[in-house]
Design brief:
By secondary structure, the protein is an alpha/beta fold. 43% of the residues lie in helices and 17% in strands. The chain folds into two domains: 213 residues, Spore Coat Polysaccharide Biosynthesis Protein SpsA, Chain A (Alpha-Beta Complex), CATH 3.90.550; 118 residues, no CATH class. The chain contains 13 helices and ten strands.
Length: 364
């Protein structure tokens, strides 16, 4: 059957789409066109796309309307509410939540759809870091081992409350897993409880190839420009705790064994507390630091484990001013390091080119 014939069946409802791409947008007029075109330009007949404008106050809605894709505008309510509306407006069994400042790479939809089946609850893939203009600034991440598993990911969640995973735009969730968002009113991010619950609902498929781009810029909610504050750490700590508690309730509701540890005994909860101690001027206790070292996630690389352990074990003896300076700058340092690595790599290895979407006002 031709591509046009398949597309006609999808549009008429006689052939259901395999994948829904939901783009949620709030005040991203500079990037939303790139996000939409990265999906539409692939002309994949088995994919449906819908854009949800979450009450933007800039020119985003006008750009979305001019794109010609199915789109809906709502009162601002946050990412979760926008994505829930996107779920309601689509029918495909799998959903990819694409942030409006990110984009997919050519051929990504074919690769994703070909890898999906009914026993998969989540598919994840690598993303390339790009800057505001779309230039690649760092290698693809995270380091995902190619494969399919659920037991391994369940074990990670039971011990650490999470597992290695890309940002929102690098994940595809089965629709029934997405429905768990309806009871996640405590969260502002879409990739929370559905990420940790996925391995209990089916297999996790990891593709160790970049299928999308993650844009780093001054407006990122989790960007490198954001400093670490007492309030931010408390927010992250509370959200981590709520996500694990929510997951434990989901397991009980489904009559599944709940062997997940108390979130307050997990590595990430304790790391937030250690950082709070540093910022507040309290001395980090050696006992707490040693406990965090023992709880280091098993998926950390040997180098990351060594560096993190060294930082934790020296925290009780270093002045808090040094510790605070470190945690307020480590994201920026990391990006600079990987950016430098990319530049060095470019001198010795033939660069892999990725298509760049011209931004409004930029030369074409």
């Amino acid at each position: 059957m031709s591509t046009d014939a398949v597309a006609a069946e999808v549009l008429t409802g006689t052939r259901p789409p395999a994948l829904a791409v939901v783009i949620n947008c709030f005040n991203y007029e500079r990037y939303i066109e790139c996000a939409i075109q990265s999906v539409v330009s692939q002309n994949n007949p088995d994919c449906e796309i819908v854009v949800i404008d979450d009450g933007s106050t800039d020119g985003s809605w006008t750009i979305i309307q001019n794109s010609g894709v199915r789109a809906f505008r709502k009162t601002n309510g946050g990412q979760v509410s926008a994505c829930l509306l996107g779920i309601e407006k689509t029918t495909a069994p799998f959903v990819l939540f694409l942030d409006a400042d990110d984009q997919l790479l050519p051929g990504s939809l074919d690769a994703i759809i070909d890898a999906l089946d009914a026993d998969i609850s989540k598919l994840q893939f690598q993303l390339v870091r790009i800057n505001e203009t779309g230039a690649v600034i760092a290698p693809a991440f995270p380091a995902l081992p190619m494969g399919r598993d659920r037991d391994k990911f369940q074990a990670h969640v039971k011990k650490s409350g999470t597992y290695i995973s890309p940002p929102t735009s690098g994940n595809v969730f089965r629709r029934d897993v997405c429905e768990l968002l309806r009871n996640a009113s405590y969260d502002t991010a879409v990739d929370g409880v559905i990420l940790t619950a996925a391995p209990f609902f089916g297999d996790i498929v990891s593709l160790n190839r970049p299928l999308g781009c993650y844009r780093i810029h001054g407006q990122n909610k989790s960007g490198v420009q954001n400093g670490v504050s007492q309030a931010l750490l408390e927010k992250h700590k509370r959200r981590f705790n709520d996500r694990v508690i929510h997951l434990k309730s989901i397991l009980r509701q489904n009559n599944w064994s709940d062997t997940i540890r108390d979130p307050k005994s997990m590595y990430f909860y304790n790391i937030y507390e250690i950082h709070q101690d540093m910022i507040s001027g309290r001395r980090v206790s050696a006992r707490k630091a040693l406990g965090a070292v023992r709880q280091l996630p098993s998926w950390y690389s040997p180098l990351r484990r060594a560096v993190t352990a060294a930082a934790l074990l020296t925290a009780p003896v270093l002045p808090n001013a040094i510790n605070v300076r470190f945690i307020n700058s480590w994201r920026l340092v990391l990006v600079r390091l990987v950016s430098s690595f990319a530049r060095v790599q470019a001198l010795t290895v033939a660069p892999r080119s990725y298509p760049r979407c011209p931004l409004p006002g930029s030369p074409r």
